[in-house]
Design a protein that fits this description.
Length: about 375
């Protein structure tokens, strides 16, 4: 399960800590450095550096420790002299009792939870063009069922992509959705847990036949969506068992419901972007005679800056960003997603969702919005 996204204890620099920081940076850089220079130096996102230095806002303990330790280490390496003693947090910062992170402008005050939820919704408007177009093209043929092999770099990106595709499924708002995270070892060590969890949600006994029958009945009045994250982590016999169940489920729906329905039966098998060999065959296009065979979607490594800029230019997105971010954060975001060199194709330069989240003021990045991408039954 992903982290909840709620920040832990937050700390804000004391005047003494702020003076110590600026003194060290001026010594190291021989000037007052810009935020981006400090960020590159210590490996902390420039938005977090801005919170510490310019806006005097609270950040987590790890960020402060990382900044001061990097500063001390570099001063010793270059000049042979660091701080006279190891600095503890209690000597440079005080715990922030409010535990509230806000945008840098008072006109854009918002809690972390509100910002996280708003941004999670906005990111659903950021198109993954190749994968989405392929899925849209397959929807008409994937009736009553469709099977898709979804490929994305990491679990966070996989959840985002699956949610983007789920929203294109007819009747998704009221769908029965059941995700399984095979990256977690429990199901891999005891595959029966998958059937037990499904059976418990469907109020039936934990056999493949009974689970399939319950889902066939569920399909009668609502869309059914199953998601298997990390399918490449399963053993061959576990994959074979699940595919046999899926084939039984698709066949049962086809035989029982001969009249057209709006509801769908959808399976997302989700893997990383590496090449994996499976016991099942994938298809290049949905075949009505073989609806249980997965359509392999193109892999998604990261979001291109061209796609990010198209997203930023949408009126719906920009108008909402103006409500939840400061103008400085909006300007930083535009800089991050732009390519100013005319010789560089923005389609070939990527930016991660984590970078976008951090620039927008979420100190823990994508971890703070993953909770809003969870599918549940």
């Amino acid at each position: 399960m992903p982290t909840s996204g709620k920040p832990g204890k937050q700390y804000i620099l004391t005047p003494q800590g702020d003076a110590k920081l600026e003194q060290g940076l001026k010594t190291l850089f021989d000037k007052c450095p810009k935020q981006i220079e400090v960020a590159d130096f210590c490996g902390i996102h420039r938005t977090t550096i801005g919170r510490i230095r310019k806006h005097k806002k609270p950040v987590n303990r790890g960020s402060l420790s990382q900044l001061f330790e990097a500063l001390d280490r570099e001063l010793i390496n270059r000049f042979g002299v660091g701080y006279s003693q190891r600095l503890g947090i209690e000597n440079i910062a005080l715990e922030d009792q409010d535990h509230e992170l806000s945008a840098s402008s008072s006109q854009h005050q918002t809690t972390t939870a509100s910002l996280s939820q708003d941004l999670s919704e906005l990111l659903f408007l950021l198109n993954c063009i190749q994968q989405e177009n392929a899925f849209r093209a397959a929807r008409a043929t994937a009736n009553p069922a469709g099977t898709f092999l979804v490929r994305a770099k990491d679990l966070s990106l996989q959840k985002w992509l699956v949610n983007r595709l789920v929203r294109l499924v007819p009747g998704y708002e009221n769908a029965y959705c059941q995700p399984f995270n095979v990256y977690s070892p429990q199901i891999r060590l005891n595959f029966n847990l998958l059937w037990e969890n499904l059976a418990a949600n469907l109020n039936t006994t934990a056999t493949i036949e009974n689970v399939a029958e319950a889902l066939i009945e569920r399909y009668c009045h609502q869309t059914v969506i199953l998601v298997l994250y990390g399918v490449h982590k399963l053993q061959d016999h576990q994959i074979a068992e699940f595919i046999q169940f899926w084939q039984q489920l698709v066949k049962g729906v086809q035989e029982r419901y001969t009249r057209a329905r709006r509801s769908r039966l959808i399976l997302f098998l989700v893997e990383d972007t590496e090449e994996h060999n499976y016991s099942f065959d994938c298809v290049e296009s949905i075949d009505y005679q073989c609806l249980e065979k997965p359509l392999r979607l193109s892999p998604l490594g990261q979001i291109s800056k061209a796609e990010a800029l198209t997203w930023f230019d949408l009126d719906e997105v920009y108008n909402q960003l103006e409500k939840i971010l400061s103008q400085e954060q909006i300007d930083l975001l535009l800089q991050d997603i732009s390519v100013n060199d005319p010789n560089i194709n923005p389609n070939e330069v990527s930016i991660s969702l984590d970078e976008i989240c951090m620039t927008c003021g979420l100190e823990n990045g994508i971890a703070e919005i993953e909770q809003y991408w969870e599918l549940s039954a």
